[in-house]
Amino acid sequence: MEVLGHRGSRVPGPENTAEAVDAALRAGADGVEVDVRRSADGDLICVHDARLSRPVGRAVIRQSTLALRAHGIPLLDEVLDAWAGRGRLICEIKNQPGQPDFDAPRERTARALVDVLRARGHIGARPDPADLDAGMGGITVSSFDWFAIEAVRDAELAVTTAFLTMPRMSVGGGLTYVQSAGHAELHAHTSAVLGSGGSHGPAAVARARAAGIRLVVWTVTGLTEARALRDAGVSGAICDDPVGVCAALTE
């Protein structure tokens, strides 16, 4: 099972920073996940929330890049430099209804990300999911917004795409879309995999494998969860404390 740092690494953090990404990878994580939004200048930055906590309620999309960097929010380019091709990097495009930067189906953030990745040379055929199973790393773009990942899927980049599902969506429902749309992975919530019932646990993993889809689970907050997911046979787990999970799984 791949161990992937959530927002770089929330423990010890600071999340969504070049420092968190570097620390997680140096400590043995197989990869990291970061959140991607746009500044008012159109630059891609790494931050989870759509609004700043200080000043309270200010929308990220309405702040200049300079102002956001003063708050410790890095450019995506800085995070890409810190990653430097080590393991896997998951870029989650944040574009959700009700948030100030929501713009589906125009998908400005997704299209800006395509431009950044193309400029960095990530051009060509999409990797085979088997390469991920072999630990070959690379970039995956994920989102709750299927328009976003479809824009990336169609951009002829050498990256994979993944559909991120809310807790209420079953693994089966997510797999139906992922398989029909040609994405490599389903990123399902822990409750969809570790909940009770016949469609959870090993049954969910078996269904994903039969469909040729890698099943990655978010967000793992404890070591018991991590061990249960490993035993269920998921392809990967996005963890708040990747260092702790790596250590626990090797005990």
Short summary:
The chain has 251 residues and is α/β, with parallel strands linked by helices.
* Main sheet summary: 8 strands, parallel, barrel
Main sheet: which strands, in order across? 1-2-4-5-6-7-8-9
What integer value in Å does the Rg equal? 17 Å
Roughly how many Å apart are the termini?
15 Å
The overall strand count is 9
> What's the overall geometry?
globular
Give the amount of beta strand, in percent: 15-25%
Q: Which structural class do the helices and strands define?
A: alpha/beta
Helix/strand order, N-terminal first: EHEEHHEHHEHEHEHHEHEH
Helical percentage: 25-40%
Name the average pLDDT: 94
Number of contiguous helices: 11
Low-confidence stretches: none
